[in-house]
Design goal:
five-stranded antiparallel beta sheet; single chain; DNA-binding; alpha+beta; 14 helices; 20% strand; globular; DNA polymerase, domain 1; MutS, DNA mismatch repair protein, domain I
Length: 395
DNA sequence: TCTGGGGTCCTAGGACCC
DNA sequence: TCTGGGGTCCTAGGACCC
């Protein structure tokens, strides 16, 4: 079973508003959830069905959406609200099976093979659909099949508040006539290449020569052919999976130039990334700094650390080093900082060079973290980044 | 006031080793 | 007799997802 919340961010924000005394249901008007335009984050994150009728699509700039529908209402939404409703949904689903994969904040896969008791999958799905609507106040689409890929494709059929099946014997009828870009994992780069091979529909792809696809697309070629034929052997991953990397990035309110200013941003990011790392009780081995120029050119550099760490200072110093070697004076729009190759802190060996300075830094981070937990993340900050604080926002 | 943010996985080239 | 054949690790860039 694949469960997908209809217009998740917008629906959730709508019911939160209603609960907080607003009369207007933003699901019933042309409305979108969007980022902050004054901070150059003005893109459409979710849309109401009426907004969709104007041709507004997720990911496009808000100003473009306004051109399509001049009296569209724009809301900024609230990530905490989304998380809250996502958890409510998850808890309801736990009544049906504990084999749930949280694929994203608004999508779940349920392995129902051992949990049907005396009812059919259809009956269970219908009960879930109804209960979510009545008890939580929003709607979901549910896809049913014998594997994850087909269930996911099924939940994407007609919306909202609907249940669809896509069993192997239905593939030809229900899936093969769709445009090839509708297939999961076929994005905006692959579609034109496939079209050039005269592959327009998922059916065309399914019947295309597998070896040719592998020659052209490598592993991805095999995957897309299997998906087009409804083949997917992957399991529902319901056990906790620790993250493999942790990153934060920020689009700056204005382009900036110069190492000093960029370093300030890096420090803010290093503080946040390492704070999150410590909250997971993990350490990382690789630091990666990414930049986007005002011309939307992306580049990045990465380097291994001598020892795994979650220290703000270690990560910041390495990031600074990377920035220095990659920065050639461009005008910068976005800065990102990622810590990669993570592992549990308790599994790592204590470094031979775990000197006094490292212990001091750990103690400092620990103290700052406690203050942040108690008084809020922004309650305390480093003097070295006071200038950058207003230019970037972190959740 | 033109184009977010957080992830995972893959590929290709180069360094280095025996 | 111009310069083999494995392998691993590291890095940069890119595709895709929600």
């Amino acid at each position: 079973m694949h469960i997908d919340v209809n217009n998740a961010f917008l629906s959730w924000y709508a019911i939160w508003r209603l609960k907080n005394g607003e009369r207007e249901d933003i699901r019933e008007i042309p409305a979108i959830i969007g980022g902050d335009e004054t901070k150059r984050a003005g893109i459409v994150l979710a849309k109401s069905n009426l907004a969709k009728k104007f041709g507004i699509v997720t990911g496009e700039p808000i100003y473009q959406a306004r051109k399509k529908c001049p009296n569209i209402k724009v809301f900024q939404g609230d990530y905490k609200v989304y998380k809250d409703y996502s958890n409510k949904l998850y808890n309801l689903l736990l009544e049906y099976t504990d084999k749930i994969e949280r694929f994203s904040i608004d999508e779940c896969f349920l392995d129902m093979t051992e949990y049907l008791m005396n009812s059919t999958l259809q009956e269970k799905a219908n009960e879930i659909r109804k209960r979510v609507n009545e008890e939580l106040g929003f709607t979901v689409n549910i896809g049913l099949s014998s594997n994850k890929l087909l269930a996911k494709m099924a939940s994407d059929f007609e919306k909202p508040n609907k249940i669809h099946t896509l069993y192997p014997n239905e593939i030809e009828n229900k899936m093969w006539s769709l445009p090839v870009g509708e297939l999961f994992m076929l994005g905006r780069k692959s579609v034109p290449k496939l079209n050039n091979l005269h592959i327009k529909t998922i059916g065309d792809l399914a019947k295309f020569d597998l070896n040719k696809l592998i020659k052209i697309f490598g592993k991805h070629g095999k995957l897309m052919w299997e998906y087009a034929n409804g083949i997917d052997l992957s399991e529902v991953i319901y056990k906790y999976e620790p993250p493999k990397s942790i990153s934060n990035s920020t689009t700056l309110a204005k382009d900036i130039e110069g190492l000093d200013k960029l370093n300030e941003i890096l420090l803010t990011l290093a503080e946040f990334v390492s704070y999150r790392l410590r909250r997971y009780n993990m350490v990382g081995k690789v630091v990666n700094v990414g930049l986007r120029t005002n011309e939307f050119k992306d580049f990045s550099h990465q380097k291994k650390l001598d020892t795994t760490t979650s220290n703000t200072k270690d990560i910041y110093l390495k990031a600074k080093e990377l920035l220095k070697e990659m920065y050639k004076g461009e005008s910068i729009r976005l800065v990102s900082l990622k810590v990669d190759n993570l592992c549990d802190k308790c599994q790592t060996q204590i470094s031979l060079f775990d000197d006094e300075e490292t212990k001091k830094q750990e103690k400092l981070d620990e103290t700052l973290d406690k203050l942040k937990e108690k008084f809020g993340y922004t309650s305390i900050t480093r003097a070295g980044k006071l200038g950058s604080e207003k230019q970037i926002k972190l959740k």
